[in-house]
Design goal:
heterodimer; A: F1FO ATP Synthase; 3 helices; about 90% helix; B: 2 domains; globular
């Protein structure tokens, strides 16, 4: 039964939908992650404004790393689209 | 402000999804209507055409009446030797010239050596396999332009340092000096440590290369607009250079941390070592993907907004004019954001490269510091 469902899904081109869903979930996760980074960074800058330069650099770095994870998801999503 | 840009990267991804949904909707809607008449506007095709490399520099107009700048084609074939001619000889892929045709932006070898219409030419698989295309394409031309700009910038600055010794910086110096100091003090020194001077030439080169090419990509007319830093081959080359420098400057301590993390039980090492080895390869890979995806996404956003004008314009001319106001406003807004992203991506690439170099040449720590070091390394993947 599962195989027939998968076959049907392939015929309908559900791969696109699933890839879009995956991209959306990845964006959601990265959004939460970067939001938390930004929030904490702002909080720490408010507590210690003289350290804002260091905090900003680290914030950008960490956000870039989170973004990297989101890009992995994007690449996997693209692979699904090109395969289906 | 910096945080907003980081969010912008993700916002872009979401926007792309939104816009693609819009396109899907409109194309289904449009299919039912008027099939006769002129060719339909294909947003996806137009966007891909603009962000990919090509053999001529398209300026304006549609196919039979397109205005474009021809670029030199340089092809090497094992049997035929080297051929050089302008891409205008192909007449946008309609003609075969000197035994080659241009099909979907790829040069293919054909059996006929004379000038004939492309439809009549027969493509030879063997000859095509033996053909190496080393043409000056749009991206290569844009790279050459950026090289000229950078040479002019740095040579004039270097000259004025000789001429104006002991005086305050002036002109181009005032632009370059803060950036060089920024790369040294904010990127190299904190992440590499005492031996930072050895890596400064590479870090500065990669920083200015990415930044200037990002900015050139934002200029819509010639010689800008090529998607150089959004080309995966270019970002791969940059990432590979970073990987090679990291690998060759790595000391015993670095390899020990990769293959046998000190102070970790053998059972855990079985799990940890493959992850660490994967991490070594993964870091340049993410470096490549990050720059490529960010810059390409920026180009796609701008083109998507412009495509909206044509999509709505096909429904009705008035709607097209109405949407164009909104589209241009959004493109201006996104371009402002892209200016920041252009700098930020150059900064992030340089910073991460510097951190990898720093990790590679780090000297042995005392045991109580190991805990921190591990957390840091786990983060860097």
């Amino acid at each position: 039964m599962l195989s027939s469902i998968l076959l049907e899904a392939g015929n309908l081109g559900l791969g696109y939908g699933v890839a879009a869903l995956g991209a959306g979930l990845a964006a959601l996760g990265a959004g939460v992650g970067i939001g938390r980074i930004g929030g904490s960074a702002l909080e720490s800058i408010a507590r210690q404004p003289e350290a804002s330069g260091d905090i900003r650099a680290n914030m950008i770095l960490t956000a870039a790393l989170v973004e990297g994870a989101a890009f992995f998801a994007m690449v996997v999503g693209l692979l699904v689209v090109f395969k289906s | 402000m910096a945080q907003r840009t980081q969010n912008a990267g993700l916002m872009k991804l979401k926007l792309i999804g939104l816009i693609l949904c819009l396109f899907a909707g409109t194309s289904v809607f449009a299919e039912g209507e008027a099939e006769a008449g002129a060719e339909k506007f294909d947003a996806g095709k137009t966007i891909v055409e603009h962000i990919s490399d090509s053999h001529d520099w398209h300026i304006l107009g549609k196919e039979p009446h397109a205005v474009s700048v021809p670029l030199p084609i340089i092809v090497y074939n094992k049997e035929r030797g080297l051929s050089m001619f302008m891409s205008s000889r192909f007449e946008h892929g309609h003609k075969a010239y000197a035994g080659y045709v241009l099909r979907e932006n790829k040069i293919e070898a054909v059996n006929e050596l004379e000038e004939i219409p492309a439809e009549q030419a027969t493509v030879s698989e063997e000859l095509t396999a033996a053909t190496y295309d080393i043409s000056i394409t749009k991206n290569v031309f844009s790279l050459l332009v950026s090289i000229v700009i950078m040479l002019w910038m740095f040579m004039s600055v270097a000259k004025s340092y000789g001429r104006r010794q002991g005086q305050a910086p002036k002109g181009m110096q005032s632009l370059i000096e803060p950036l060089v100091v920024f790369v040294r003090d904010e990127i190299a020194k904190p992440s590499i440590g005492k031996k930072y001077e050895k890596y400064m030439p590479y870090l500065l080169t990669v920083f200015f290369f990415i930044w200037i090419n990002n900015l050139l990509g934002l200029i819509p007319i010639i010689p800008g607009g090529a998607n150089v830093t959004g080309n995966i081959a270019v970002t791969m080359t940059l990432a590979i250079i970073t990987f090679l420098i990291t690998t060759f400057s790595a000391n015993k301590n670095y390899w020990q941390h990769v293959f046998a993390m000190p102070g970790v039980p053998v059972g855990v090492l079985v799990l940890l070592t493959p992850i660490e080895i994967l991490g070594v390869v993964l870091r340049p890979f993410v470096l490549m993907i990050r720059l490529f995806a960010n810059i390409t996404a920026g180009h796609i956003i701008a083109l998507s907004f412009f495509s909206l004008i044509f999509i709505f314009g096909e429904m009705s001319t008035g709607l097209g004019f109405g949407v164009s106001v909104l589209s241009v406003a959004f493109v201006v807004f996104m371009s402002m954001l892209e200016l920041l992203v252009a700098f930020l991506q150059a900064f992030v690439f340089t910073l991460l490269s510097a951190i990898y170099f720093g990790a590679a040449i780090e000297e042995h720590h005392h045991d109580h510091e190991h805990g921190d070091a591990h957390v840091e390394e786990a983060l860097l993947i």
